[in-house]
Amino acid sequence: xxxxPKIVSPTExxxxxxxxxxxxRLTHWLIVLSIAVLSVTGFYIGDPLxxxxxxxxxxxxxxxxxxxxxxxxxxxxxxxxxxxxxxxVGNQYARWDQYLPVSRERLRNTWEALNFFSYWRRDPLxxxxxxxxxxxxxxxxxxxxxxxxxxxxxxxxxxxxxxSLFQAFVFLIPLFRGLQMVHLIHHIGMWLLLVFxxxxxxxxxxxxxxxxxxIDSMFSGYKEREVTVVRETRDA
Length: 236
Hints:
A hairpin with a 4-residue loop joins strand 1 and strand 2 (12-18). The protein folds into two domains: 20-94, Fumarate Reductase Cytochrome B subunit (Up-down Bundle), CATH 1.20.950.20; 101-220. The protein contains seven helices and three strands, in the order ββαααααααβ. The protein is mostly helical. Helix 1 (22-46) runs antiparallel to helix 2, helix 2 (61-89) crosses helix 4 (132-159) and helix 4 (132-159) runs antiparallel to helix 6 (179-210). It has a three-stranded antiparallel sheet. It has helices at residues 22-46, 61-89, 104-117, 132-159, 172-175, 179-210, 217-220; strands spanning 6-7, 12-18, 222-228.
């Protein structure tokens, strides 16, 4: 879906293409915000930095951090599952085949994107959605996020009440080779997501300079692209 083209020259026009649907934009920002909260509270849970005087039961700082961490984790998991569901019901830019180069067209897009990032190609790809390389990166990130949900559930079984529904996930601990390994995977996954977020922000700013409204598109859903204007000619 696109808006009416805006003519910028006799042979070119700018057209707004509707790329990111509302569920994609909403889950994107919910995941970003929840990762920020989860990182801060997770750091504190792993290494408490706030010192309080008197008995801990009078302040409940650790308990508060764990509650915030749990609620942020619920938001993160729900947003992730909605986004995964949207891989199968969303528009052409949101579907799963944008994250796995299973078609000849997608393989070509990935190769052209690699040429662009290696400076063999000067002009960016005209495709308004994710490039092949970006799609692969996001596919890996989805996998990391899913592992973070599983390891988080496994860790919470240690603190959940014996009759809690969370105890249904206790089988995840031996699946990940023990509690210590669960901690390690969860910790490494957090750092991987933070590094990805930094790179993602950098590349979003870069593409907003080389292309049009890359960052704005995650608010409006629209990306602007130049298209060739085909004009009819009449014989004299």
